[in-house]
Amino acid sequence: MQNKKIIGMTDGRMYDLYANWIKGADASIEIIRLGYSLDNLKEVEVCQAIVFTGGEDVHPKYYNKLEYLSYCVPVDFDEKRDAFEWQLLRLAEKRELPILGICRGLQLINVYYGGTLIPDLASWGKFGHAKLPNGSLPNHSINVDPYTLLFKITGAREGVVNSLHHQSADRIGKGLVASAVTRDGVVEALERTDAKGKPFLLLVQWHPERMEDASNPFVENIRESFLVEVK
């Protein structure tokens, strides 16, 4: 098939939701599932872009904060996944592939660039970001910096997104900048400080693949802008 788009996507919880959202009804898109259990790191060589999906917490050893272990739940770690995706990110950067990161994807990539994480938002006095008692996802507003790629993509200074995380970016990694935050100061999106001449990189803390309004610019525009970069 001509103009086929081959996109690598990290394996993890709710994988099909991410894959179905990215692929949509576009028959030209092929998704390659990438994960340590598949032992297929080499398949990055045929990928034209990578999506880093959500899931487990990044182990605090990766950002030199072992004292944060008491705020973490051991079953929320998958150190084999951390190691695999760390290598995958290194290869993706080397090949200058467009990258979209979602939830854990934002956190992992922030850490990769030397940033740190807040290990548990509730313990840091930030509430309303995790799943509600009835199992549904809370929604909250975000503010977007008007001088960023995210604003260029969405055309919105403000928006409403869903939330399903108990950790977030703390110190921002070198070469990255926060392009959206919540009213209580939680980082909701990261991108390159200077993107000129560099591959697409957009990291969002919310879950566009789970938002009901598919036409929301923080869902549809992000997907379309990412796919335009897949060449």
Model description:
The protein has one domain (5-228): Class I glutamine amidotransferase (GATase) domain (Rossmann fold). It has helices at residues 15-23, 79-94, 104-112, 149-154, 220-228, and strands spanning 5-10, 29-34, 49-52, 99-102, 117-118, 139-144, 158-162, 168-169, 176-182, 187-192, 201-204. The mean pLDDT is 94. The chain is built from five helices and eleven strands. It is an alpha/beta fold and 231 residues long. Strands 2-1-3-4-11-10-9-6-7 form a nine-stranded mixed sheet, sandwiched between helices. It has a two-stranded antiparallel ribbon with strand order 5-8.
List the helices and strands and how they pair.
Elements: E1 5-10, H1 15-23, E2 29-34, E3 49-52, H2 79-94, E4 99-102, H3 104-112, E5 117-118, E6 139-144, H4 149-154, E7 158-162, E8 168-169, E9 176-182, E10 187-192, E11 201-204, H5 220-228
Parallel strand pairs: 1-2, 1-3, 3-4, 4-11
Antiparallel strand pairs: 5-8, 6-7, 6-9, 9-10, 10-11
Concise synopsis of the structure shown:
It is built from 5 helices and 11 strands.
Largest sheet: 9 strands, mixed
CATH fold-level label: Rossmann fold
Number of helices: 5
Mean pLDDT: 94
Measured distance between first and last alpha carbons: 14 Å
Poorly predicted regions are none
Report the order of strands and helices. Answer: EHEEHEHEEHEEEEEH
CATH architecture: 3-Layer(aba) Sandwich
CATH class: Alpha Beta
Total tally of structural domains: 1
**What is the total tally of β strands?**
11
